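Customer escalation, tier 2.

The customer says the design service returned an amino acid string that "doesn't look like it belongs to this structure." They asked us to rerun it and document both sides in this ticket. The original structure tokens are below, unchanged.
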């Protein structure tokens, strides 16, 4: 009898980080019957990833609503999964990380009786409001999961401190590195319209500062501060080009376009497909972000990162010296950016290559663990 796997995800970063796992299971059809369910908590930003990795979901809940709220999204995911779980009856359900899809899908899977596998398990800030609601999403999922695929030893240790059975934890590396290594080798030669477009807007005489941001706890005043900081940086440094693929969440889009439109060395663009974003990270001088995934990718590319958050569940890159937490304080964002633009020794120190998050073999380890357990 084949093992029945259901891999569930819903947002852009989950899709990027689960795509290599889908591919790895699909290579092994002797042992596994693997199906993919997307909640479509994200729509366009999810579809971009599915398209690039050539994944056709078996089930699509198609849930995204404009400016959705956490209450109805959570309820819709759990009730939408019921018939899928009851019809397919998976032995194992795989969820990733810390989104509302992750937390709600793990509750649904628990009700169905399936074993729950948590990919990217064990990251913690221990602050339930930051990141919000992700810290609690991840903790709830960790409580429910049967198997915990921890990206690093530090994340394993967080689980051990919560009395999770050590035999249920495997340190795998982060699957984001599997995705990155598969993509980084092709982006310089791939035929991609977005990369062609980026080449037309990039001014090669300038240093690129790549920006992304979306965190809920930064909505409102946080985003105003971030945008005011970027405006000051762009106006002070005419040898800099700020390129900002703006997240589609209206709570992000509105302040960003209001404050940063019409500045000659700031380009606000739509979210990029994954290969184009990887290509742009490679061209960048530095990255300013509040993204979890970007923090994990940048050290492998030797790009210094200023993280617009007060807390991090990813201490490895901070310890390695590639990442500095700057919060959403305007003066701090400006001064740390100035330091990286002016102090070349500091820049060189921060841009040393580090690989704290994995070796690109996380998915192989997960598949082997399930096959032999
Ligand atoms: C979600 C996750 C967050 C993750 C982030 C990655 C939760 C609570 N939040 O935040 O953990 O880091 O995704 O990007 O799980 N939208 C679109 N098209 C899209 C995607 C989003 O229009 O393809 C707009 C919609 O108006 C949607 C809104 O963005 O209602 C918010 O989407 P949602 O998934 O609730 O929150 P994110 O901020 O994207
Ligand atoms: N990313 C992308 N296009 C973009 C911006 C980011 O493909 O325009 C990728 C990025 O490489 C990383 C992931 O999306 O792998 C991060 O997603 P996001 O910042 O939305 O979520 P988080 O990682 O914070 O949960």
């Amino acid at each position: 009898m084949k093992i029945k796997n259901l891999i569930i995800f819903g947002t852009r970063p989950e899709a990027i980080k689960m795509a290599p796992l889908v591919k790895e299971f699909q290579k092994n059809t002797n042992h596994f019957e693997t199906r993919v369910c997307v909640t479509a908590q994200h729509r366009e930003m999810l579809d971009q990833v599915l398209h690039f990795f050539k994944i056709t979901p078996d089930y699509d809940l198609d849930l995204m609503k404009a400016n959705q709220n956490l209450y109805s999204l959570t309820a819709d995911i759990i009730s939408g999964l019921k018939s899928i779980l009851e019809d397919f009856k998976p032995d194992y359900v795989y969820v990733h990380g810390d989104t509302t899809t992750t937390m709600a899908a793990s509750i649904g899977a628990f009700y169905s009786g399936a074993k729950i596998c948590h990919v990217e398990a064990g990251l913690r800030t221990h602050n339930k409001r930051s990141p919000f609601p992700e810290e609690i999403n991840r903790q709830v999922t960790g409580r429910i999961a049967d198997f915990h695929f921890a990206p690093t030893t530090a994340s394993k240790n967080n689980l051990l401190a919560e009395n999770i059975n050590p035999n249920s934890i495997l340190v795998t590396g982060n699957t984001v590195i599997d995705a990155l290594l598969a993509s980084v080798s092709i982006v310089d030669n791939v035929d991609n319209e977005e990369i062609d477009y980026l080449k037309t807007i990039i001014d090669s005489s300038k240093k690129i500062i790549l920006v992304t941001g979306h965190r809920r706890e930064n909505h409102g005043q946080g985003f105003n501060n971030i945008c005011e900081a970027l405006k000051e940086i762009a106006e002070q440094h005419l040898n800099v080009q700020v390129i900002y693929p703006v997240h589609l969440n209206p709570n992000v889009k509105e302040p960003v376009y209001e404050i940063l439109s019409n500045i000659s060395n700031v380009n606000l663009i739509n979210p990029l497909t994954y290969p184009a974003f990887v290509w742009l990270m490679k061209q960048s001088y530095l990255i300013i972000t509040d993204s979890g995934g970007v923090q994990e990718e940048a050290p492998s590319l030797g790009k210094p990162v200023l993280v617009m958050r007060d807390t991090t569940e990813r201490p490895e890159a901070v310890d390695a010296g590639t990442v500095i937490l700057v919060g959403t304080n305007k003066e701090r964002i400006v001064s740390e950016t100035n330091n990286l633009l002016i102090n070349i020794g500091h820049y060189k120190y921060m841009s040393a290559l580090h690989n704290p998050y994995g070796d690109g073999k996380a998915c192989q380890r997960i598949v082997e663990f399930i096959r032999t357990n």
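Tier 2 assessment: The sequence is consistent with the input. The radius of gyration is 20 Å. The chain has two domains: 3-174+358-372, 192-351. Sent an explanation to the customer and offered a walkthrough call.
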